[in-house]
Predict the 3D structure of the following.
Amino acid sequence: MRGFPPLSWPLLALVLAGGSIALWPAASAPAAGPSSAVSLDDLHGSAKLDALVERVVERQRGLRSLRADFVQVKTSDMLLDAVRSTGEFFYSAPDSVRWDYAQPDPMVVLFNDDFVTTYHPTGKRAERVKVSSRDRRFVQALAGTLPLDDLMVYFSLTMSDAGAPRPYTFDLVPTAATLKKKLDSLHIEIDRALLLPVVVEFREADGDFTRYEFRQLQIDPEFDPDRFKLEFGDGVLVETIDASNGLS
Protein backbone atom coordinates (compact mmCIF):
# COMPACT_ATOMS: atom_id res chain seq x y z
CA MET A 1 0.00 0.00 0.00
CA ARG A 2 1.40 3.41 -0.98
CA GLY A 3 0.28 6.95 -0.33
CA PHE A 4 -2.97 7.59 1.51
CA PRO A 5 -6.56 6.60 0.75
CA PRO A 6 -9.29 9.26 0.45
CA LEU A 7 -9.37 11.17 3.69
CA SER A 8 -11.87 10.52 6.43
CA TRP A 9 -11.72 13.01 9.30
CA PRO A 10 -9.69 10.80 11.72
CA LEU A 11 -7.11 10.06 9.02
CA LEU A 12 -7.09 13.69 7.95
CA ALA A 13 -6.42 14.78 11.52
CA LEU A 14 -3.63 12.28 11.94
CA VAL A 15 -1.99 13.15 8.62
CA LEU A 16 -1.92 16.74 9.77
CA ALA A 17 -0.77 15.77 13.21
CA GLY A 18 2.33 14.24 11.73
CA GLY A 19 3.09 17.35 9.74
CA SER A 20 2.21 20.22 11.49
CA ILE A 21 2.62 19.13 14.96
CA ALA A 22 6.01 20.31 13.94
CA LEU A 23 4.87 23.38 15.85
CA TRP A 24 5.81 26.27 13.60
CA PRO A 25 3.22 29.01 14.21
CA ALA A 26 3.79 32.71 13.83
CA ALA A 27 2.59 35.94 15.42
CA SER A 28 4.13 39.01 16.96
CA ALA A 29 7.07 37.97 19.10
CA PRO A 30 6.52 38.70 22.82
CA ALA A 31 9.11 40.47 24.88
CA ALA A 32 11.76 38.10 26.21
CA GLY A 33 11.19 37.02 29.80
CA PRO A 34 13.80 37.12 32.56
CA SER A 35 14.66 33.43 32.02
CA SER A 36 16.00 34.18 28.53
CA ALA A 37 19.24 35.45 30.06
CA VAL A 38 19.83 32.19 31.95
CA SER A 39 21.50 29.19 30.28
CA LEU A 40 19.16 26.22 30.06
CA ASP A 41 22.07 24.02 31.14
CA ASP A 42 22.07 25.83 34.49
CA LEU A 43 18.41 25.05 35.15
CA HIS A 44 16.79 21.86 36.42
CA GLY A 45 13.36 20.30 36.88
CA SER A 46 10.27 22.44 36.38
CA ALA A 47 12.36 25.61 36.05
CA LYS A 48 14.14 24.15 33.04
CA LEU A 49 10.89 22.90 31.49
CA ASP A 50 9.20 26.28 31.93
CA ALA A 51 12.18 28.15 30.48
CA LEU A 52 12.48 25.80 27.50
CA VAL A 53 8.78 26.01 26.67
CA GLU A 54 8.96 29.81 26.96
CA ARG A 55 11.89 30.03 24.56
CA VAL A 56 10.43 27.59 22.04
CA VAL A 57 7.14 29.50 22.02
CA GLU A 58 8.97 32.81 21.62
CA ARG A 59 10.89 31.34 18.70
CA GLN A 60 7.71 29.97 17.13
CA ARG A 61 5.79 33.22 17.45
CA GLY A 62 8.63 35.13 15.85
CA LEU A 63 8.59 33.04 12.66
CA ARG A 64 7.18 34.52 9.46
CA SER A 65 7.85 31.47 7.29
CA LEU A 66 9.79 28.23 7.18
CA ARG A 67 10.93 25.65 4.63
CA ALA A 68 12.39 22.20 5.33
CA ASP A 69 13.06 18.84 3.69
CA PHE A 70 11.26 16.01 5.45
CA VAL A 71 11.49 12.24 5.72
CA GLN A 72 8.37 10.39 6.86
CA VAL A 73 8.38 6.75 7.96
CA LYS A 74 5.03 5.08 8.66
CA THR A 75 4.31 1.62 10.05
CA SER A 76 0.87 0.04 10.28
CA ASP A 77 -0.86 -3.32 10.44
CA MET A 78 -2.33 -2.35 7.06
CA LEU A 79 1.14 -2.05 5.49
CA LEU A 80 3.33 -5.00 4.58
CA ASP A 81 6.47 -2.96 5.25
CA ALA A 82 7.27 0.45 6.64
CA VAL A 83 6.66 3.18 4.04
CA ARG A 84 9.33 5.87 3.68
CA SER A 85 8.28 9.13 2.05
CA THR A 86 10.29 12.28 1.30
CA GLY A 87 9.44 15.80 0.27
CA GLU A 88 9.34 19.48 1.19
CA PHE A 89 7.48 21.32 3.96
CA PHE A 90 6.41 24.97 3.71
CA TYR A 91 4.86 27.22 6.37
CA SER A 92 3.66 30.83 6.11
CA ALA A 93 2.24 32.86 8.98
CA PRO A 94 -0.27 32.75 10.41
CA ASP A 95 -1.62 29.31 9.48
CA SER A 96 -0.77 28.21 5.93
CA VAL A 97 0.93 24.81 5.73
CA ARG A 98 1.93 22.81 2.65
CA TRP A 99 3.49 19.36 2.30
CA ASP A 100 4.86 18.37 -1.11
CA TYR A 101 5.45 14.61 -1.14
CA ALA A 102 7.93 13.57 -3.84
CA GLN A 103 8.65 9.88 -3.10
CA PRO A 104 7.38 7.22 -3.36
CA ASP A 105 4.23 8.84 -4.79
CA PRO A 106 3.65 12.54 -5.54
CA MET A 107 1.05 14.13 -3.25
CA VAL A 108 0.27 17.61 -1.90
CA VAL A 109 -1.38 18.30 1.46
CA LEU A 110 -2.40 21.94 1.94
CA PHE A 111 -4.06 23.60 4.94
CA ASN A 112 -5.23 27.11 4.06
CA ASP A 113 -8.36 29.29 4.29
CA ASP A 114 -10.36 26.84 6.42
CA PHE A 115 -9.77 24.02 3.91
CA VAL A 116 -7.57 20.95 4.08
CA THR A 117 -6.81 19.78 0.55
CA THR A 118 -5.10 16.53 -0.44
CA TYR A 119 -4.10 16.33 -4.11
CA HIS A 120 -2.86 13.22 -5.92
CA PRO A 121 -1.54 14.49 -9.28
CA THR A 122 -0.79 11.03 -10.68
CA GLY A 123 -4.31 9.80 -9.94
CA LYS A 124 -5.82 13.16 -10.97
CA ARG A 125 -7.96 13.41 -7.85
CA ALA A 126 -8.22 15.72 -4.87
CA GLU A 127 -10.16 15.89 -1.63
CA ARG A 128 -11.04 19.24 -0.01
CA VAL A 129 -12.46 19.38 3.52
CA LYS A 130 -13.93 22.61 4.86
CA VAL A 131 -13.74 22.83 8.65
CA SER A 132 -15.94 24.84 10.99
CA SER A 133 -14.70 27.88 12.87
CA ARG A 134 -15.10 25.92 16.11
CA ASP A 135 -13.07 22.98 14.84
CA ARG A 136 -10.50 25.15 13.05
CA ARG A 137 -8.55 25.65 16.28
CA PHE A 138 -8.54 21.92 16.93
CA VAL A 139 -7.32 21.28 13.39
CA GLN A 140 -4.66 23.96 13.89
CA ALA A 141 -3.49 22.18 17.03
CA LEU A 142 -3.15 18.92 15.12
CA ALA A 143 -1.63 20.71 12.15
CA GLY A 144 1.02 22.39 14.26
CA THR A 145 -0.13 25.95 13.70
CA LEU A 146 -0.63 26.55 17.42
CA PRO A 147 2.28 27.42 19.72
CA LEU A 148 3.59 24.83 22.15
CA ASP A 149 1.89 26.46 25.12
CA ASP A 150 -1.49 26.31 23.36
CA LEU A 151 -0.82 22.70 22.40
CA MET A 152 -0.32 21.87 26.08
CA VAL A 153 -4.02 22.56 26.58
CA TYR A 154 -4.63 19.20 24.86
CA PHE A 155 -1.64 17.24 26.23
CA SER A 156 0.34 16.53 29.39
CA LEU A 157 4.04 17.03 28.74
CA THR A 158 7.29 15.54 30.01
CA MET A 159 10.69 16.96 29.01
CA SER A 160 14.06 15.21 29.03
CA ASP A 161 17.59 16.34 28.18
CA ALA A 162 20.35 13.83 27.35
CA GLY A 163 22.90 16.62 26.99
CA ALA A 164 24.56 18.35 24.04
CA PRO A 165 24.61 17.80 21.13
CA ARG A 166 21.48 15.68 21.40
CA PRO A 167 18.13 17.49 21.13
CA TYR A 168 15.72 18.29 23.91
CA THR A 169 12.78 15.88 23.88
CA PHE A 170 9.12 16.32 24.73
CA ASP A 171 6.82 13.36 25.31
CA LEU A 172 3.15 14.28 25.21
CA VAL A 173 0.07 12.29 26.16
CA PRO A 174 -3.38 13.60 25.13
CA THR A 175 -5.72 14.70 27.90
CA ALA A 176 -8.69 15.74 25.75
CA ALA A 177 -11.20 12.91 25.36
CA THR A 178 -11.75 13.54 21.63
CA LEU A 179 -8.02 13.49 20.93
CA LYS A 180 -7.48 10.31 22.97
CA LYS A 181 -9.71 8.48 20.49
CA LYS A 182 -7.25 9.31 17.70
CA LEU A 183 -3.80 9.67 19.29
CA ASP A 184 -1.98 7.62 21.90
CA SER A 185 1.18 9.75 22.25
CA LEU A 186 3.53 12.26 20.65
CA HIS A 187 7.33 12.51 20.80
CA ILE A 188 8.99 15.76 19.71
CA GLU A 189 12.72 16.52 19.48
CA ILE A 190 13.80 20.16 19.68
CA ASP A 191 17.05 21.31 18.07
CA ARG A 192 19.19 22.91 20.78
CA ALA A 193 20.35 25.80 18.61
CA LEU A 194 17.25 26.50 16.52
CA LEU A 195 14.77 25.82 19.36
CA LEU A 196 12.46 24.31 16.75
CA PRO A 197 11.23 20.72 16.29
CA VAL A 198 13.37 18.55 14.01
CA VAL A 199 11.80 15.14 14.78
CA VAL A 200 8.14 14.36 15.40
CA GLU A 201 6.81 10.88 16.17
CA PHE A 202 3.20 10.02 16.88
CA ARG A 203 1.41 6.82 17.72
CA GLU A 204 -2.25 6.55 16.85
CA ALA A 205 -4.78 4.97 19.17
CA ASP A 206 -4.90 1.88 16.92
CA GLY A 207 -1.11 1.39 17.16
CA ASP A 208 -0.07 2.90 13.81
CA PHE A 209 3.21 4.81 14.11
CA THR A 210 4.58 7.74 12.08
CA ARG A 211 7.94 9.50 12.32
CA TYR A 212 8.89 12.78 10.65
CA GLU A 213 12.43 14.11 10.47
CA PHE A 214 13.00 17.69 9.29
CA ARG A 215 16.27 18.68 7.64
CA GLN A 216 17.82 21.76 6.02
CA LEU A 217 15.53 24.17 7.83
CA GLN A 218 15.34 27.65 6.27
CA ILE A 219 14.06 30.36 8.61
CA ASP A 220 11.84 33.13 7.19
CA PRO A 221 12.40 32.50 3.46
CA GLU A 222 10.40 34.49 0.91
CA PHE A 223 7.55 32.54 -0.71
CA ASP A 224 5.41 33.28 -3.72
CA PRO A 225 1.85 33.63 -2.30
CA ASP A 226 0.67 31.21 -5.00
CA ARG A 227 2.59 28.42 -3.27
CA PHE A 228 -0.35 28.11 -0.88
CA LYS A 229 -2.92 27.83 -3.66
CA LEU A 230 -3.82 24.76 -5.68
CA GLU A 231 -5.12 25.07 -9.22
CA PHE A 232 -6.56 21.88 -10.72
CA GLY A 233 -6.44 21.31 -14.46
CA ASP A 234 -8.96 19.55 -16.64
CA GLY A 235 -9.57 15.91 -15.81
CA VAL A 236 -8.91 16.22 -12.05
CA LEU A 237 -11.73 14.78 -9.95
CA VAL A 238 -12.24 17.07 -6.92
CA GLU A 239 -14.33 15.83 -3.99
CA THR A 240 -15.40 18.54 -1.55
CA ILE A 241 -16.62 17.73 1.96
CA ASP A 242 -18.34 20.47 3.96
CA ALA A 243 -17.64 19.75 7.63
CA SER A 244 -18.29 23.34 8.67
CA ASN A 245 -21.15 22.21 10.91
CA GLY A 246 -18.63 20.33 13.03
CA LEU A 247 -16.28 17.36 12.89
CA SER A 248 -17.15 14.43 15.09
Observations:
- The CA atoms of residues 18 and 200 lie 7 Å apart.
- Helices lie at 9-20, 45-61, 133-143, 148-151, 177-180.
- The chain has a mean pLDDT of 79.
